[in-house]
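> tool_call: predict_assembly(chains=two)
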Amino acid sequence: MSEWWTYSLSDFLMFSSRSYYRLIESYNAAMWPAHVLALVAGIIVIGAIARPRQNLQRLAALVLAAAWGWVAWAYHRERYAEINTAAPYFSAAFAVQALLLCWLAYRPGNAAPAPQPLTLGLSGLAIFAYPLLALARDGGEWRQAEVFGIVPDPTVVATLGALLAWRASATLWLIPVLWCLVSGATLMELKIGHAWLLPAIALTAVFARVMGSKKPRDLNSTANPRS
Amino acid sequence: MPPTSPSRRHLLASMIAASGGLALSPLLAAAPPAPLLTRPVPSSGEQLPVIGLGSWITFNVGRDPQGRRESVDVIRQFFAGGGRLVDSSPMYGSAQDVIGEAVQTLKPAQLFAADKVWVSGGARGVAQVEASRKLWRVPRFDLLQVHNLLSWEEHLPILLAMKREGRLRYVGITTSEGRRHTEIEKIMASQPIDFVQISYNALDRDVEQRILPLARERKIGVIVNRPFRQGDLTQSLAGEPLPGWAADIGCTTWAQALLKFIVSHTAVTCAIPATSSVAHVRENLLAGTGRMPDEALRKRIAQDVERLA
């Protein structure tokens, strides 16, 4: 791309907010009642963060992997690609993250000794509060609700909460954080009021991860009071 | 001002006919039918209405049935109002397919299908053009343009060969927002193209210096994209009352004044505002009718827009 410095974010936005939320609305209608299953899956993730046991962490990592894989295929590849030519790349990135989460389920490693308010807060926000943003948006309605495991944004936020709780390696953070920037930029160009939220969440989570210098305890260790 | 010829189709009469003669407002009833102005394509003399229809963002609605119905309504109104040139690109997501749905539904005899090739490599360009043609549901394109000059050295010879073989009527190149103007000028000066597509509006007037005069000199048609800076210009002027000159040239909205500023330039063949609103299509088409600003008024429009936007 020549004269790349002359391009702004708006040059890459190829759809209107109306088309974007209509797409989510029709996708929600097609997915229903998978939302109920997604809610149960989300509660499992919160449970795994609240009660840090290795088996639960494995299960939650698999739940998150399934959510990322589902969003990669059903949302990005089958739906978002209709209006965004970059969606197949997003689909590939989400599929890679699903594989990384499967690896985390296979080798869960260490976890934090106790749940932190921030980790629970992020997951709770993603699973219970994120769908309500549709009602807070100008012209939004509940049929356009963004639900964990169904669409990307709440899925990514819940994952950040889990990664923070499990003190996952940087490799697992890369795609979720990049998505927060991409989605935040998209919403900003669409002039959506809560466009700042996703980048702010990513920044907070990364900051908390970097500052969390305490060495995690092994869940298999008898020293862990909760194991 | 250059002479502009009225199209045979009369705008308001057509709109009334399209709506089944319903809802004839007293204003419309009192107004005589206004002809939609046309300009000749410099290389052929074919007359084209000065208002076309763009499709960036507005027709990219995916599979959404409501969005598609609304888009078809916009295109229906455009043709009913005497419009001809519809412009799209493989870069515009589902827009080509949405236009194709409208073509299939409306079967518009007057359609002037303008599309683009937007891919690296000549061979891939051929395949892309064929894929685009199928999406548009047309036997052939009237105009194919090299989008943003991407691989133009490879695409232009192929498009010009298609034109020679009668598989295409016109060939062009595009840019937007003032990019690569030096290269655009070189191509305009050296290649036998029929059209150049550029961004031009009351604020972005760089093309007045070299590109528009060169187009006139080389007999190249000019299609103007982003006449409202993708809506930003009309939005920033929304709260400002229209100056007195607006009534003199029959404008009731800023959008019409902005369009009249563009299409009144003697080198411009047509402007291609994009919209998803039937009301806006009507408004845009009305800008292609009636009195146009002369050079002095064009300067004043530019000054006022610069001051207010």
